[in-house]
UniProtKB/TrEMBL annotation:
One of its GO terms (cellular component) is mitochondrion. GO terms for biological process: mitochondrial mRNA 5'-end processing. InterPro entries: TPR-like_helical_dom_sf (IPR011990). It comes from the Eukaryota. Signal peptide: none annotated. This is RING finger and CHY zinc finger domain-containing protein 1. It comes from Setaria italica (Foxtail millet). One of its GO terms (molecular function) is mRNA binding.
């Protein structure tokens, strides 16, 4: 019996066993010994007769061609194997159809894209590298998701062709990869855009931080923090180096979406990565800290800012003034504004009055409403007292900037 089982397994593993079992197996089953025939059908899934204790003998006799009375079992086996064959062919046809649809998707594909795809496909099949102009034309013509799918398919085929026929191991140049990412963002197929950021991909695309910036800018236009987080996650997984420009975009997305928690999270990541932040990033970061009333963060960020940026901007200077007011130090706030006014370029000095009026009329309302309910009343009373004191200190120091203090109390009462 063990020898028969071994022979059966060899039959199953043979080339003849693949393909259409209903056709190829019938002769083998007809010529097999009784034990082998029974075992083959058992291995292939045909249930044995439960009513007969001598089912092996029954299977042996059912394959005896000289016995007309034993044609029931062969008929059943033949029908069952044919049925298996039909299922196999249906499955094969299904996968073939899928492959055909992938290779030649026509639904909703732009005519110009389809034309370029077919031209490049024929060129590759003829074992000649298609001109670069065709690929550039296809990229610029993409206008929907089906176009992008087709673009990535031809990129994969070109990648294989370059490797197998031209022995070129290098990916496509960075500029092409940037254009592919731009096309993905333009069409709105961000899932494919993220694929362009993977270090190991089958498309020959080299991920660059410039491509990531383009996708981040798209997330900024959509005010989409989830997309931003997805992009940042892909950057991290693929070890793409963070740049100061990356922080500029990420910080602005977090600020526009009013997500102090996200900004704090990514700011920490940028700092730990040793990224030298731009002045713009510090402006957004410190202004947001003042907006939420986090004076400790203001001083920590300002300390970090002082290591890379020499002069204050309107945003960072007034953030420090607000930090002093939050700490109940109006004299320090006045000194900060005076120092800022002194070092600002002449063309920037007129904006100090606007920022000071915003500090009086807008900021107190914003910062108070962000506090816990139990703390709002105390902060409101402190600001109503300390902001006029700050203005008085400014005037005494020689910096007389006309502002409307009457807007302070009504705004706070509205909060």
């Amino acid at each position: 019996m063990q020898a028969a089982a071994a022979r059966a397994r060899r039959v199953l593993a043979s080339p003849a066993a693949s393909g259409l079992p209903g056709i190829l197996w019938a002769p083998r089953l007809g010529s097999a010994s009784g034990a082998e025939g029974a075992l083959l059908l058992h291995l292939y899934g045909v249930p044995s007769s439960a009513s007969s204790p001598h089912h092996a003998r029954g299977f042996s006799s059912c394959f005896a061609p000289q016995s007309p009375g034993n044609l029931i079992f062969p008929t059943m086996a033949s029908q069952w194997l044919c049925e298996k064959s039909v299922h196999y062919q249906m499955a094969t046809a299904h996968f073939s159809t899928e492959a055909s649809e992938v290779d030649h998707p026509t639904a909703h594909v732009t005519e110009a894209v389809e034309e370029m795809y077919q031209k490049m496909l024929k060129s590759v099949e003829a074992e000649t590298m298609p001109p670069n102009a065709w690929l550039w034309s296809m990229i610029s013509s993409c206008s929907n998701k089906e176009d992008i799918k087709l673009l990535f398919q031809i990129l994969q085929k070109l990648r294989v062709f370059r490797l197998s026929n031209l022995r070129i191991n290098a990916n496509f140049n960075d500029h092409l990869c940037m254009k592919v990412t731009e096309a993905c963002a333009r069409v709105g197929t961000l899932d494919y855009g993220l694929k362009a950021l993977w270090k190991h991909n089958v498309y020959g695309i080299t991920p660059t931080i410039g491509s990531a910036h383009y996708l981040l800018q798209h997330a900024k236009e959509l005010n989409d923090t989830k997309l931003m987080e997805s992009i940042m996650q892909v950057l991290r997984r693929n070890s793409l180096p963070l740049q100061p420009g990356t922080a500029d975009i990420v910080f602005s997305i977090c600020y526009n979406a009013d997500r102090w928690d996200l900004l704090s999270k990514y700011a920490d990541r940028f700092v730990k990565a040793g990224v030298k932040l731009h002045r713009t990033a510090f402006d957004i970061w410190m202004e947001f800290a003042a907006k939420v009333g986090d004076s400790q963060s203001i001083w920590n960020i300002n300390s970090l800012r002082g290591k890379s940026v020499k002069h204050y901007t309107l945003a960072t200077g007034f953030a420090c003034a607000k930090g002093s007011l939050l700490d109940r130090k109006p004299e320090n706030a006045a000194a900060m504004i005076k120092l800022l006014y002194k070092h600002l370029p002449d063309q920037k000095k007129p904006f100090v009055q606007d920022e000071l009026q915003k500090l009086i009329a807008e900021w107190p309302t914003e910062v108070v409403k962000r506090q816990k309910k139990d703390d709002r009343k105390a902060m409101e009373e402190a600001l109503i007292k300390d902001i006029p004191t700050m203005i008085s200190c400014l005037t005494k120091s020689g910096l007389d900037i006309p502002v409307d203090l009457d807007k302070l109390t009504p705004q706070l009462q509205a909060a």
